[in-house]
# Entry
Amino acid sequence: MKNYDYLIVGAGLFGCTFAYKARQAGRRCLVIDKRPHLGGNIYCEDVEGIHVHKYGAHIFHTSNKKVWDFVNSIVEFNRYTNSPLANYKGRLFNLPFNMNTFHQMWGVTTPEMAVAKIEEQKRQAVEALGGREPSNLEEQALVLVGKDIFEILIKEYTEKQWGRKCSELPAFIIKRLPVRLIFDNNYFNDKYQGIPIGGYNRLIDGLLEGVECKTNVDFFSSEYKANWRNMADKLVYTGAIDEYFDYKLGKLDWRTVSFKTRVEDKPNYQGNAVVNYTSHEQPYTRVIEHKHFEMFGQEVYDCPKTVVSEEYSTEYKDGMEPYYPVNDSRNNALAEQYRELAMKEQNVIFGGRLAQYKYFDMAPIIEQVLGLEIG
# Structure
């Protein structure tokens, strides 16, 4: 008899949630991960009593009550509300684009005044195109929100993110740019949002309770890839889909991020969890101050130090952690070919951002797993 019903490759959110559901169904699972820790990109490190999001800011948000109730059954979530700021050459703007943003930019005080300003600039952009459709991201953004918002809050930030000029990026990357004509800095429209009380590691530990796990194990450079069918009935694979197939159709492109993290000898560095830097004056795209995800009011000052991370967006190279799929025509077509190969694999489930070559927030990943039937 085989030792396991499921071998799960990758201890990120998809793999951990699958392991939880499989164990609840009485199935035997082994979870392996090549990193020295469990939790994938939501893993946190404890530094100066602060839960540091090692792989970047993760804010859980959803309108799906079933998903919200599920994660809260594992660990209670706090009331954190994502309200990032944008810093453009020392000027601060609220995000997402809302009446606070428009007041900061133009001094307007009513929705009617804001609409008039935006429509005027949009009209200028449409006239400049001379009747043709936008051919790149820059033209698309100008048509959607006008010159001021584009140049101050979108242009240079996007160029840092993608490592390319906006005029060289495809228009379809931004099909719409939400504009709120209310004074509301809540970034998400979802009904529920928050951070696990005690950090994301508590969520991971709860999902993997009673599940056998091994870290520092590379599926490809160990006996697992060749012999997994002798160990388990089925494989749950959450790594990069092109790597699974030995890149036989070619390599998919990714963007990745890196972080410079430091401890500041002060209780409050920037007064907000996330500040985006939208000009080229700073090489980083944003600065994260981790304590603000879980500490509020006097708690901020009761913790005498703070931890900040500068986030840098770079082109992916072998050996780095892949983060974001590159959604251009070449990669989309290649990914679809790999997905067709994946559908033909017997007793293999491909799940998560890397294995599907699609960007997902956390809640849709959990929703996917909860919708699976455990055989």
In short: The chain has a mean pLDDT of 96.
